[in-house]
C-alpha cells in the first residue's frame, strides 16, 4: 500500500447514487517520481491502479486482487509539480458474486478527467 507515504486520503463520501467520491493528495516529492522520469516526473499509471485498489478495499472491507482490467484509459499526464497534487476518484462498485466486484472509476485533477477504468477485483 502506498497510503500515508505516497498519498493521503483527504475525504471520502458516499454519493446519493451509491457511488463513492474520494479526494486524495499526492506527495510530489516521493521517490516514485524520481525514476519516472528524472527530467519530466510523471505519475506511473500503475500507481493509479494501486490507489483505486486501496480505495475499493477500504469500501468493501476485504483484501482484494485485480482479476481483470477490461478498460483502462490514461487521458492526461499527472505531474507532481502541478499547482494542485490532489486527485478525485469517483467509483461505482457492484458486487457480481460472493467474492468479486466490478469497479468503474473516473479519476480527475482540477476537474479534468485523467483516467477512466473498469476493473474486476476478487477477494483473497
Question: How are the secondary structure elements laid out?
Answer:
Layout (H helix, E strand, L loop, with lengths): L6 E8 L5 E7 L18 H16 L3 E11 L11 E10 L4 E10 L2 E12 L1
Antiparallel strand pairs: 1-2, 2-4, 3-6, 4-5, 5-6
Highlighted features:
mainly beta, six-stranded antiparallel β-sheet, 1 helix, 124 residues
The profile of the biggest β sheet is: 6 strands, antiparallel
Q: Which H/E pattern describes the elements? A: EEHEEEE
What structural category characterises the helix and strand content?
Answer: mainly beta
Portion in helices: 10-25%
**Which strands sit side by side, in order, in the main sheet?**
1-2-4-5-6-3
Runs with pLDDT <50, length 5+?
none
What fraction of the residues are assigned to beta strands by DSSP? over 45%
**Can you give the mean pLDDT?**
92
